[in-house]
Write a structure and sequence with these properties.
Strand order of the largest sheet: 6-3-2-13-12-11-10-9
Distance between the termini: 10 Å
CATH topology of the largest domain: TIM Barrel
CATH architecture of the largest domain: Alpha-Beta Barrel
CATH class of the largest domain: Alpha Beta
Strand content: 5-15%
Number of strands: 17
Helix content: 40-55%
Bound molecules: acetyl coenzyme *A, the ligand O=CC(=O)O, magnesium ion
Number of domains: 2
């Protein structure tokens, strides 16, 4: 990280009520201009209170679910929206065909590789795949600024390789952080700004006009939404931004991740709230599995087996993807598939072939089920996903393909996944979660572990499962009861091979997450406090 206090924006240029905290980066001078900051401040002042109320509503609902005062169901008050015939605005031309989308963090080299990968679209991720250090967030914005203008290049001093954009590149889509996160380096009237508003606002302020001028547009993926009210908040943010920046109405376009269990009951409503801006929904399977455990985890009849046994062919997950496809196609929206966690394995041909076979099977299943496109985590997987969709999708998408008219019930979405809970599964969760937390605290939001891609969503499953298994004192392999003492013992045994400055912090964070009576809704919330401590000490 290059720090330069000489480039710190003069305090007198900061709009009233706004303050920047922590280290100052060279990129800030061009990005955090007075006008850009004023725009961010206006978004926070207008929408910050609503965001906090909606987060409080999440907590209140969870308390009602835990107390059996509420059961998840399709909302009665929006039955008319579900019954009526309406469609969303047509997609922009460059998002008609999105059969393969690559995702990745906002690092400079990765952005160039992803845009050059041959995928139709690239989702640049400030969220699950990024650890939100100030440097990553600001340099990520700078990298995207350069990518939009096609001036991005990179020279890797280690390999000696130089990188620049091909003539033909993927369409850029940006995923800001979710509503639960804040960006502590910018405060508005003494409060940290919403990270969603920061990431979205800064990107749209600098790039929306330029993207439209180049025949594309400001396109976003919206993560971790739990209700139609949270979608409506995004709609208002879009409307306000279009007006403030003098953009054509409806030019900001979004794809919403259905990656929480509560949101699965409001797919129609989310599409409806965003009907002039939305393009599709996406099956964010990893956060969805995490959300299933988080939402229903206190129920003794909903104990989820080892992570490896919970697949997209489990009845509840199959029901979720079928409902998403059916709902989207009825409304003229794209039904995007999700991420297979397997990635290419170097120096082990058999393991590599096995990983490719798993990804191929997953993508073929998605294409046959009626999805309009899918995600890959690595450029080496673009060809496999493309072949799976090419085989069944001669046109740009499958929106018009007739689908079986079966109803998906609320009960179908809440079937407990079947399988076993094993000591090997527990130990795998411990190893993955702690190594991931260590990487995150070191500024890396996505890592390969044991031949799988691990990011914030997959790590959330690991820690939430261990919490649930402890809460219910499950039996491992039908032999040993899981207790806090046994967890401590397994953690100590698993960690003997790992050394490094931040492993101790990762270990204690993991144990806190698993042993807490009321676990935090996202691991990134307590982990962000650690990250800030490192950042402010830097
Ligand atoms: C649950 C969810 O939210 S899914 C969405 C969030 N997750 C993601 O976006 C996953 C993104 N994927 C990644 O970050 C990476 O693929 C990892 C961390 C899993 C593995 O990365 P690596 O170990 O570096 O992979 P590997 O060494 O095989 O990379 C080979 C090349 O491909 C590039 N590459 C790998 N993944 C990507 C990617 N997603 N985008 C662009 N380039 C990539 C590497 O930069 C490297 O480039 P180089 O040869 O020019 O140096
Ligand atoms: O964001 C995607 C997911 O699977 O989680
Ligand atoms: Mg996710």
């Amino acid at each position: 990280m290059t720090l330069s206090s000489s480039l710190m924006p003069p305090v007198s240029d900061l709009p009233p009520g706004l303050a920047l905290r922590g280290p100052t980066l060279p990129e800030q001078a061009a990005l955090l201009t007075t006008d850009a900051l004023a725009f961010l401040g206006s978004l926070e002042r207008r929408f910050g209170i609503r965001r906090r109320r909606l987060l409080a509503a999440r907590t209140e609902r969870q308390a009602r679910l835990d107390a059996h005062e509420e059961v998840l169901d399709f909302p009665a008050e929006t039955a008319d929206i579900r019954a009526a015939d309406w469609t969303i605005a047509p997609p922009p031309a460059d998002l008609q065909d999105r059969r393969v989308e690559i995702t990745g963090p906002v690092e400079r080299k990765m952005i160039i590789n992803a845009l050059n990968s041959g995928a139709k679209a690239f989702m640049a991720d400030f969220e699950d795949a990024s650890s939100p250090t100030w440097a990553t967030m600001i340099q990520g914005q700078q990298n995207l600024f350069d990518a939009v203008r096609r001036t991005i290049d990179y020279h890797d001093p280690q390999s000696g390789k130089s990188y620049r954009l091909n003539d033909q590149t993927a369409v850029l889509i940006v995923r800001p952080r979710g509503w639960h996160m804040t960006e502590a380096h910018l405060t508005v009237d003494g409060t940290a700004i919403s990270a969603s508003l920061f990431d979205f606002g800064l990107f749209v302020f600098h790039n929306a006009r330029e993207l439209l001028r180049r025949g594309s547009g400001p396109y976003f993926y919206l993560p971790k939404i739990e209700s139609r009210h949270e979608a409506a908040l995004w709609r208002e943010v879009f409307d306000a931004s279009e007006q403030a920046l003098d953009l054509p109405a409806g030019s900001i376009r979004a794809t919403v991740l259905i990656e929480t269990l509560p949101a699965a009951f409001e797919m129609d409503e989310i599409l409806y709230e965003l009907r002039d801006s939305i393009v599709g929904l996406n099956c964010g399977r990893w956060d969805y599995i995490f959300s299933m455990i988080k939402t229903l985890g206190k129920r003794a009849d909903f104990i989820v087996p080892d992570r490896a046994q919970v697949t997209m062919t489990s009845p509840a997950l199959l029901a979720y993807s079928q409902l998403l496809i059916k709902t989207c196609h009825r409304r003229g929206a794209h039904a995007m598939g999700g991420m297979a966690a397997h990635i290419p394995v170097r120096n082990d041909d058999a393991a590599n072939q096995a990983a490719f076979a798993r990804v191929r099977a997953d993508k073929e299943r998605e294409a046959a089920a009626g999805h309009d496109g899918t995600w890959v985590a690595h450029p080496g997987l673009v060809g496999i996903a493309q072949a799976a969709f090419d085989a069944v999708m001669p046109g740009p998408n499958q929106v018009a393909r007739p689908l079986p008219d079966s109803d998906i019930s609320a009960a179908a979405l809440q079937q407990p996944p079947q399988g076993t809970i094993t000591e090997a599964g527990l130990r795998s969760n411990i190893r993955v979660a702690i190594q991931y937390l260590n990487a995150w605290l070191c500024g890396q939001g996505c890592v390969p572990l044991y031949h799988l891609m691990e990011d914030a969503a997959t790590a959330e499953i690991c820690r939430m499962q261990v919490w649930q298994w402890l809460h219910h004192r499950v039996s491992l392999d039908g032999l040993h009861t899981l207790t806090p003492a046994l967890l401590h013992q397994c953690v100590a045994e698993e960690m003997t091979t790992f050394t490094g400055e931040k492993f101790a912090a990762a270990c204690s964070l993991f144990l806190d997450l698993c042993l807490s009576d009321s676990p935090p809704p996202f691991l990134t919330l307590p982990a962000y406090d650690y990250l800030l401590a490192y950042d402010f000490l830097a």
